[in-house]
Design a protein that fits this description.
Elements lengths: L1 H21 L4 H25 L5 H21 L8 H29 L9 H6 L7 H14 L4 H13 L3 H15 L3 H14 L6 H13 L4 H14 L2 H14 L5 H11 L12 H7 L3 H21 L4 H13 L3 H14 L5 H12 L7
Helix pairs in contact: 1-4, 2-3, 6-7, 7-8, 7-9, 8-9, 9-10, 10-11, 11-12, 11-13, 12-13, 13-14, 15-16, 16-17, 16-18, 17-18
InterPro entries: C-type_cytochrome_biogenesis (IPR051263), Cyt_c_biogenesis_CcmI (IPR017560), TPR-like_helical_dom_sf (IPR011990), TPR_CcmH_CycH (IPR056413), TPR_rpt (IPR019734)
Protein name: Cytochrome c-type biogenesis protein H TPR domain-containing protein
Pfam family, one: TPR_CcmH_CycH
Length: 372
């Protein structure tokens, strides 16, 4: 029945497309006959007006002669309007019909070569219920999402789903998954560190205040958590506190086991830090970073600061972010930019508010004051 229905549907669609080409083209002849009939009606009306005395004999004869000339002109042109182009018109019709018929013919032939008509239907519900070992990543992910939608209190499920989102680059979904795991089963070092990393992904590489808070909570549970330590070092570097960042990364490069991926990451980050020297032995990434010139390293740091500045323009209510930006401009010896950042920070909060007063006091300690 399926193949019969498919064949009928294909035939109907092809016929609908070919219908304009199958009609007989009699438009020009019919148009000529209509014009002649109109002129004859005009002649009859002319005779009636002459009989009623509305036109004299001379005017009637002139009008009758003019209409007669028009009728003769149409009758002479009628035969020549049919034959010319008839062969061309027929050729166009044949080509058009062949093109229309070739579409289903080529499609069906291609399906016969590469199609699988014997393959059974695979609705989504059935695919989600099949053996996990035979399911694709998308099917497994959908199955996990459906399960957690019905069982949102399963913290292990959120712990499993979060890293998958993280590897797929779905940072916002990963952050939500880790947060739900924390809300359901409580805060742990791994959950908080994973949440912070997801938030760094959401911030496009910038360690935001929210992410730094998550890493800080992770270190409260486990002071040696390498992921939290590494990103806290990155936060310090983005603030312009290279000494603090170098201290954190140097300690990681010295203390962590050689098999730890975080040791390699810390050594590479330490080598790319302006003025920093690694004491944990060279690595491939560190050696490459050592080849950077002072100008290149300075450009890298300024890029981090510019990224933070752009983030604060989009989200000016981040008091911690403004502290980082002001400190970064002070470290980079850009006092005018630091003053401008302070003015924008104060404008983001109400005058006399706790946030504005705290920012003013913080800037004053760094020797920055508002010009307003």
């Amino acid at each position: 029945m399926f193949w019969i229905f498919a064949a009928l549907l294909t035939f109907a669609a092809s016929l609908a497309v070919m219908r304009p080409f199958l009609r007989k083209n009699s438009g020009p002849v019919e148009g000529t006959q209509h014009d002649i009939a109109v002129y004859r009606d005009q002649l009859a009306e002319l005779e009636r007006e002459h009989e009623r005395g509305l036109l004299d004999r001379r005017e009637a004869e002139e009008a009758r002669a003019e209409i007669g000339r028009r009728i003769l002109a149409l009758q002479k042109s009628e035969p020549s309007r049919q034959p010319p182009g008839s062969y061309r018109s027929m050729l166009v019709k044949i080509v058009a019909i062949a093109a229309v018929l070739s579409v289903p013919a080529v499609s069906w032939a291609t399906y016969q070569l590469i199609g699988r008509p014997d393959m059974p239907a695979q609705p989504l519900a059935a695919r989600l219920e099949k053996d996990p070992a035979q399911a694709s990543l998308e099917e497994l992910l959908k199955r996990a999402e459906n399960y957690l939608a019905e069982n949102p209190q399963d913290a292990r499920g959120w712990d499993t789903l979060g890293p998958v989102y993280l590897r797929l680059g779905r940072y916002r979904d990963a952050a939500n998954a880790f947060q739900k795991a924390i809300d359901t089963a409580g805060s742990t070092a791994e959950r908080e560190a994973a949440l912070g990393e997801a938030l760094v992904g959401v911030g496009e590489g910038v360690v935001t205040g929210e992410a730094e808070a998550a890493f800080t909570r992770a270190r409260e549970h486990d002071p040696e958590n390498p992921r939290a330590r590494f990103y806290l070092g990155m936060a310090a570097a983005q603030e312009g506190d290279n000494a603090r960042a170098g201290e954190i990364w140097r300690a990681m490069a010295e203390e962590l086991d050689d098999a730890s991926p975080w040791r390699e990451a810390a050594a590479s980050a330490l080598a790319s830090l302006p003025g920093a020297e690694t004491q944990a032995g060279p690595s491939r990434n560190a050696a490459a970073a050592d080849g950077m010139s002072a100008v290149e390293r300075q450009r890298m740091i300024e890029g981090m600061v510019a990224s933070l500045d752009a983030k604060l323009r989009d989200n000016p209510r981040d008091a911690e972010g403004w502290r980082r930006l002001i400190r970064s401009y002070v470290v980079l010896d850009r006092p005018s930019d630091a003053e401008n950042a302070l003015e924008r920070a104060l404008a983001a909060f109400e005058a006399g508010s706790a946030e504005a007063d705290a920012l003013s006091a913080f800037a004053k300690e760094l020797g920055v004051s508002s010009t307003e």
